[in-house]
Fold:
Amino acid sequence: MSEGVAQRRVLVVGRDYFFYTQEIISEMRRTFGAHITFVPITPPRLVWRILELLGSGIAIRWLERYHHSFIRRFSKERFDVVLFIQVHQIGHLVRIYREALSGARFVLYYWDSLRTHDYLPYVGYFDQVFSFDPQDVGKHPELRYLPLFYATRFRELRAPGRRSWDLAFVGVASSMRRYEQLAAFEDWARHSGLRFNKYLVVSPIFFLRMLLRGRRLRSVHFRWLAPEQVVDIYRSAVAIVDLPNNSQSGFTMRTFEALGAHRKLITTNEAILKEDFHTRESIYVIGGSHGDFPDLSFLESEPVFSPALEGYCIRKWVSALMGWALPGEGR
Structure:
């Protein structure tokens, strides 16, 4: 069946990761007129998460029943596209989705590297598989490269205004590495006379695990910020700090949010030097020969942002992922 604007019906199965999955769904509805049905890929209950962490067989059976109930329901409906955002949580259960919804086009997207989650055993169930990690795409021809995006709310921050912070960071620490990196960065900023606004989220379980090892994590939070609060932090900052995971080569969401908002970016990902959106006036790469901290002159200079950034807005990202033409552009 044709995927005309009035006919697009999409089933999205994925991790409800902060507000990003909902941003994607909202854009599909707003710009492309799609009808979206969303299923969190794991049961949104604390009890299930605890059982999963304990490695309980109860959690596995719960997950299977949870998805089988949706599959039974959806087998009576028509979908043009089934989009999975991650799949390793359910593994070969995706085969049952494919059999029940055989008339739909199946698409998979990952903003994790294969070194973090090996999803290669499941790519055969999909018509198209996209990854944000260029190294993974280079090694596996069945993957297509699609970097992340920035939402419209960040583009709207481009108007000039007073900046009350020199540096800002909003993110998650799932290991001590990022916590310690930020602590060192905060100490450097303080000694350099810079104003650093940091909001670091950790899970209660990680916090307790570190506490049992004699490490009390300080200045951390257990709850993620609302989208408006994240935007407020970006609005008031001169530069955004980015400390990506060592196991990935893909660019973080933070990268595109910062640059999309026309904020300077300080990152440890050297691959950014080769990208079409790189300018030395807006991006500083730390580590290696550049040292562990940025040159203060970078923060004081006037930024220059690449016009190529317009290609990384969420509208164009959804268009590329789903194979849908933007309104007014034709196929």
Confidence is low (pLDDT under 50) at residues 1-5. The CA atoms of residues 241 and 266 lie 5 Å apart. The chain has twelve helices and twelve strands. The longest strand covers residues 165-172.
